[in-house]
Amino acid sequence: MKLAFVGGTGPEGLGLAMRMAFAGHEVVIGSRSKERGEEGATKVREAVPAASAAGGDNAEAVRDADVVFLTFPYSGQQATLEVLASALDGKLVCNVVAPLEFKQGVGAVALNVPGGSALQEAAAQLPNARVVSAFQNMSAEELQEIHHPILCDVLVCGRDAEAKQVIIELANQIQGVRGLDAGGASQSRYVEMLTSMLINLNRKYKTQTSIRIVGIDGGQ
Amino acid sequence: MKLAFVGGTGPEGLGLAMRMAFAGHEVVIGSRSKERGEEGATKVREAVPAASAAGGDNAEAVRDADVVFLTFPYSGQQATLEVLASALDGKLVCNVVAPLEFKQGVGAVALNVPGGSALQEAAAQLPNARVVSAFQNMSAEELQEIHHPILCDVLVCGRDAEAKQVIIELANQIQGVRGLDAGGASQSRYVEMLTSMLINLNRKYKTQTSIRIVGIDGGQ
Which residues of chain A make contact with B211, given a CB cutoff of 8 A? Predict the structure, then answer.
C-alpha cells in the first residue's frame, strides 16, 4: 500500500513511517515544506535501506495515498485539515493526534477538546473521508528502533468498520503489536488521553511504557 | 489491617472486600442501611469462609478502619462524603469511583467532572484525610471469583506517596495484580476514564478486559 504521513517529519510520524516501510509499504513523508518532507524520506531510507520512501509537501504526499496518517501536534490540526480537506476526499485517514499540553511540575495534561476528541474534530472537518484514529500511544523513540519488537495494543476507533480493519492489519505488521477495534469515534477520547498517562509514567519510571489489554483472545 | 468499604454492598465493593478478606484482612462492609451492610458481610463470609467480615452503616464501618475504600457510584459521592467528612479525618481513603453514565447505543461514557476527577473532588471534600484513588478498572465480576488470578495493573494516583504505597501493597496481594504509582491526583482522570473504555471493550469482545502497562520492571 501507499501510505502518506502528513506532518511526517516529527518523531512519531517518522517512526511510524519507518515501521511501515520496514513492513514493505511505500511511504511518502509530507511536510509544509517540500524540502523538509524530502529530508524526512532520507531519514526513513537511512533507517530502512530497502524502503520505498519519497517526500514532498503535504498536498503532494496525500495525492495517491491509500492511507493518510495525520502525525502532527494537535495545535496544528484544524489549520492543516482546512488546507487539505478536498485532497482528503474519499481517503482513508488515520488520526494519530493526541491533544495534550505540557505543564511545569505536572507533565503531560490531556486537553478536553470542543469536539470530544481529535478524531471527532477531524471527522467533522473531513465529511467525505473515512476517518479513524490509532497509534497515539506508541512511543516515537521505540517506533524508530525498527528491529526492536514493541509489545503493545493499538486501539483503533472510528465509525467505519472496514477502515478500522485496514488499520488493525497495518498495526499487526509491527512486530509485537496487536491492533484492536476499540469502538466508535466517541471512544477515541479515552485512547487519546492515555497518551498523557503513559508519558507521565515514562517520566516517573524512566522507561518507555505502552499498554496491553488483557482478556481479549490472543492477549496474554 | 482493618479495611472499610463505604457503599460496599455493590458488586465492586463486595468483590474488593472478598479479595482483601481472602488476603487475611479484616473487612467491614458499610451501607446507608445497617442491615444491608450486614447482608454484605454475610456474602463476603460465604465467598471466603475464613473471612473476618462485619457489616454496619457507613459511619460505623469507617470508625476504626485503617483504610477506607469508597465503592459507590459517582452520583452518590458528594452527598456521602458530606455526611462522612469528619469521620474520615486523618484516615487513608482510597477512592474507587469512576464517573460515568450509560448512553443507549454508545455504552459507558466517562463524565468530565468539575473538579477534574472523582479523586480530586473527594480530596477537596476531605481536606484532613489522605485520599488516593485505585481499583476503578477492575471487573467486579472477576474480583468476586476469588480463586481466579486477575492479570492487570492497578494504577494508584494521589499526592501522598506513603498512602499510595499502602494501596500498592494491598493491590499486590490480589493474585496476578501489580500496583503501580501512576502519579499525582490530576492523573486520576485518565485512570477513571479507562473504566469506560474497558467496559465498552468488554461489551464488544464479550469478555472481561483489564489493562497492563508494558515496559515497567516486572511487567511482561
Answer: 211-214
